[in-house]
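Task 17 of the worksheet. Students: predict the tertiary structure of the chain below and write it out as structure tokens. Keep your answer in the requested format; marks are given for formatting as well as content.
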Amino acid sequence: MPREAHLHLKVLVVDDNDRLAFIIQTLLEAAGYEVRTAQDGRVGYLTYLIFKPELIIADLQMPVQSGLEMMKEIRRHDPQIPAIYMTGDFDTFRSLVEEEKRRYPVRFLEKPFSSREILRLVSDFERRRLQQ
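Model answer:
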């Protein structure tokens, strides 16, 4: 996909691991996406209100407010906003994750994951957005 095709896709990355959030931001910006980061769900929600992303990448387990709690608030504004959930402990969240998957456009990444995996998922969401 040409770089210009997804130049304006806005992505919000929410993770309490600042280093991981920075790596994802750098990777996506290098691929042409516009990216903002937040360190927890509360700040993520406030950033969502200002930035208006088209895709959210969020850690499931964070202090202050989890990724799922944040998405419940965001879905009041945009029920069908796509999300990629990240976790290092998928088993703990399995039932919640399966419910989300049935109701909303979501995908999941188990930590650790490769840069190729996250780029593929973001690109998949971008393709769907362009087809609408």
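Marker's comment: The radius of gyration is 14 Å. Strands lie at 10-14, 34-38, 55-59, 83-87, 106-110.
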